[in-house]
Design goal:
The complex is a heterodimer of chains A (412) and B (423). With 412 residues, chain A is an all-alpha fold. Chain A contains 19 helices and no strands. Chain B is globular. The two termini of chain B are 24 Å apart. Classes of the chains: A mainly alpha (412), B mainly alpha (423). Chains A and B meet through helix 8, helix 9, helix 14, helix 17 and helix 18 of A and helix 7, helix 14 and helix 16 of B.
Chain lengths: 412, 423
């Protein structure tokens, strides 16, 4: 509370404005805007009409301009139709399906993004989401295809196994770091390849997890009906309970990091490991716990990938989730609401792909947008320079106000 | 995310000469002796030393698989004993001995896999070299960057940039040398971004590296899908550099055809690797660079410009990694493919560590990875029953073991990953 008293009194409104403009959310929003603008530039330069019109740019500049505009408008409206609401659809179900697709794609991104975000908060860089996901999914697949359990129990056990498997795989990283000082980045990269190898071996070997009557390619059976994540909106939509898992994950993450003692320890180690050690926190054990917790969130994504399908799984079931999770955590600045929103955004990018394909624009354009967004996010000085934002503020007007608002009832 | 402070990427607990290396070696040696020797297969292996058209044609060498296992197993046990004696005398096992150990173990595995078959040694070695070149060059870029204290996770992105630009510029201009140069410059520019963010803006180096990888992957994927895949004849059909045999050297039996009938990218790697070693360890320039990476404050005190040194070493490291990327396309298969580097940049990173930030050892480590890739492909063909997935993960397990400090002391440049703020 002393912050406000120490700062020289400038206009209160101006201070609030400057705090908002220099804050993380403004930067995140502007990074997204900048990413979309650069994506638009890529769309323009990959449009045939624009390139043709550009050849006689000096004689008829309006042609090029309108071609450019068409390219951008078509591209982003296709993304909108594919990810939010398809206003060209024939019936209401088809019109709303894109939104549910976005949620379906966002589920694993949010869950694994939370895992990476947790590690970030502890000062660890977990780029092993793909390995943790595969390792969790491996055991979940074992339960879902090789064990028969009653309805309800089967799904719960399979989910728990996914979470525990991924958590254990994450804990290995924390253990190795704590015991030997090996850096988690290298360890997680290697463990990603190792998990992929193990999973492929399991999916290739008939005695283990290979599809019954399967061929030579590594593939598992479809999860038993009792172990599948149930559909949320009926058979018309593919959205399944994996998204609920992710939302539950968001709440758990918020509680864990902002309210629990363990989360306090995590954050303390992340801020300053030496100070935490001096204060009596066992930093090594915190590393192991944090990586296990990080893996557990990734395990939610593992459950989503392994149990959210009605077909057999292949070893590439992790897709690009492992790396997308990093961008989700970065964009969401490692907070629960931030990760939720970032996951929804990147989920929308994935859901929009088919519609963009239809208009002849490669859906890979979202990869470009995504790449530039995280570039801007990772380099705050760059965004501040582009948008002429004020440098980080030391005033705490907003925080003070929030404090006052939330502790109104307390007697001083 | 600049608030996330990552400690030096490779900071290790300082282990004094431990006996982990000899114990680990002994375990491997006994395994080879038992599994490939005593319990090995008795069928004949035909070691094929030369290809049909070699100048000096050596006859195939026929030997029972388990005999090879026995001989090599005993040799490996001997090396383990030497390593043990060295550890007793508080000496670290030299890197070349560890690598010899690794290569002999690989040969034993080969002989076991090939029982009842021919083992095309020249073919395997030659392909391993071609596959190792991008890894080695990427690793050289990484070493240059990390020796001055900037962690380079972006090797993957640099390889991908190099591979893409080499193929596209090579096709459009019909000039592969121009493609090579543009590839190098493009990767160097990417490296420059890393340098500026890390040195000027003090952004977390690992995060910048990962972000650059995401960015390059996004851009090349898009351009590939939107442009190259539909206009491949024009823009993605570069061909490859011609294979130039070096007169004299290529006539050496066994290694001659494998090492000296290669493309220019491979020969450039042969030049760059020893040159980098020489510059780093034998010249004042290299001494200054290492000083900046080990103790920037001390370097600054004696008048070395830390920021400038870091900037140029990181940037020029990008040139070298870009060459590695070009080696993936116009130095090997020609056309660019989606996500062509496919994680090789991360393997190059592992190579840097396995090679202990030393150019020559790193080159040997890259060759080991090259072997493992060929091995996987070849083993699939000779004996489909072998769990190739496990052969695939062996190099990663080895790297993991090295990183957690079992294979002797692995120590990064002391200031690796730490920004230097002139105070």
């Amino acid at each position: 509370m002393s912050g406000a008293a120490d700062t020289p009194v400038v206009g209160r409104g101006a201070a609030v404005m400057r705090e908002i403009m220099s804050g993380g959310s403004t930067r995140a929003i502007l990074s997204v805007v900048a990413g979309f603008i650069i994506g638009a530039i890529f769309m323009v330069f990959s449009s045939e009409e624009f390139l043709t019109a550009a050849q006689y740019l000096t004689s008829r500049p309006t042609d090029a301009l309108s071609a450019a505009w068409t390219a951008i408008a078509e591209g982003y409206s296709a993304l909108f139709r594919g990810s939010i609401y398809n206003y060209k659809a024939d019936d209401i179900v088809a019109a709303f399906r894109p939104m549910t697709e976005t949620l379906r794609f966002a589920g694993p991104l949010i869950a694994s993004g939370l895992g990476i975000a947790l590690a970030f908060r502890v000062g660890l860089f977990n780029i092993g989401a793909s390995g943790q996901l595969l390792f969790g999914a491996l055991w979940a697949t074992w339960i879902s295809t090789r064990v028969s359990l009653p309805w309800g129990v089967h799904l719960v056990v399979a989910m728990l196994v996914a979470i525990l498997g991924a958590a254990a795989y994450g804990a290995i990283v924390g253990f190795l770091k704590a015991r030997t000082g090996a850096h988690e980045v290298i360890v997680t990269i290697m463990l990603n390849y190792i998990a992929a190898g193990i999973l492929t071996f399991f999916f290739r070997t008939p005695e283990l997890l290979r599809e019954v009557d399967g061929g030579g390619t590594p593939k598992s059976d479809a999860p038993a009906a009792t172990a599948q994540l149930p559909l949320l909106l009926g058979p018309e939509f593919t959205l399944h309970a994996g998204f609920i898992l992710a939302i539950v994950g968001v709440f758990v993450y918020w509680w864990l990091m902002e309210r629990s003692t363990l989360g306090f320890r995590f954050r303390m180690v992340g801020h300053n490991a030496d100070a935490a050690r001096t204060a009596g926190i066992n930093v090594e054990r915190t590393f192991v716990l944090a990586m296990a917790a990080s893996g557990a969130f990734v395990g939610l994504a593992a459950a989503n990938q392994a149990l959210g399908v009605q077909a057999g799984l292949t070893p590439d079931m992790d897709g690009t989730i492992g790396f997308d999770a990093i961008t989700v955590a970065l964009l969401g600045s490692s907070t629960a609401p931030g990760v939720l929103l970032a996951g929804l955004l990147f989920g929308a990018f994935k859901a929009g792909a088919p519609q963009m394909q239809v208009i002849g624009l490669s859906p890979e354009i979202t990869g470009v947008v995504q790449g530039f967004i995280v570039l801007f996010i990772a380099a705050p000085p760059l965004v501040r320079a582009i948008f002429r934002l004020p440098p980080p503020q030391k005033t705490t007007v907003i925080a003070d106000w929030w404090q006052k608002l939330t502790t109104k009832g307390d007697a001083k | 995310m600049s608030t996330v402070v990552t400690p030096g990427l490779f900071s290790q607990v300082d282990v004094s000469v431990s006996k982990k290396t000899p114990y680990l070696m002994a375990a491997f040696a006994v395994f080879v002796l038992v599994a490939f020797g005593f319990a090995g297969k008795t069928e004949i292996v035909a070691f094929q030393w030369s290809k049909e058209d070699d100048l000096i044609h050596l006859p195939d060498f026929l030997v029972a698989s388990n005999i090879v296992g026995l001989v090599l197993g005993v040799t490996l046990v001997a090396i383990a004993v030497v390593s043990f004696v060295l550890a007793q005398r508080k000496q670290v096992t030299p890197m070349w001995l560890t690598l010899t150990f690794g290569l002999l173990a690989v040969v034993a595995l080969l002989a076991w896999l090939a029982s009842g078959n021919t083992l095309p040694f020249a073919f395997i070695l030659g392909n391993a070299v071609v596959l190792a070149v991008p890894l080695a060059l990427g690793a050289m870029g990484g070493i240059m960057s990390e020796r001055v204290g900037v962690v380079n996770i972006a090797i993957e992105g640099q390889l991908l940039t190099g591979a893409f630009l080499a193929a596209v510029v090579g096709s459009l201009t019909d000039n592969l040398y121009l493609g090579l140069i543009v590839a190098m410059i493009g990767a160097a520019l990417l490296s420059m971004v890393l340098a500026v963010f890390a040195i000027q803006y003090l952004v977390d180096q690992i995060i910048v590296g990962v972000v650059l990888n995401v960015l390059v992957l996004g851009i090349t994927n898009f351009l590939y899908a939107q442009w190259l895949s539909s206009d491949g004849q024009n823009s993605n059909f570069p061909g490859t550099f011609p294979i130039i045999p070096i007169p004299g050297l290529s006539a050496i039996p066994i290694i001659g055809p494998a090492l000296f009938e290669a493309r220019i990218t491979t020969y450039l790697a042969y030049l760059i690797i020893p040159a980098l070693w020489f510059i780093l360890f034998k010249t004042r320039l290299g001494l200054r660079a290492r000083a900046v990476g080990e103790h920037p404050l001390a370097a600054d005190t004696v008048g070395i410009n830390v920021a400038r040194t870091r900037f140029w070493w990181v940037t020029i490291g990008g040139l070298v990694a870009g060459l590695g990327g070009a080696a993936l396309t116009i130095g090997a298969v020609g056309a660019f493919g989606r996500n062509m580097s496919g994680g090789q940049g991360f393997i190059a990173l592992a190579v840097v560590i396995l090679g202990r930030w030393h150019p020559l050892s790193a080159a040997a480590a890259a060759l080991l990875f090259g072997f493992s890739i060929v091995l996987r492909i070849w083993a699939n063909q000779v004996s489909p029953g072998i769990p190739t997935d496990f052969i695939t993960i062996v190099p990663y397990v080895v790297t993991l073991i090295a990183v957690v400090g079992f294979v002797g002391r692995v120590r990064a440049p002391a200031a690796d990953g730490q920004p230097y703020i002139k105070g």
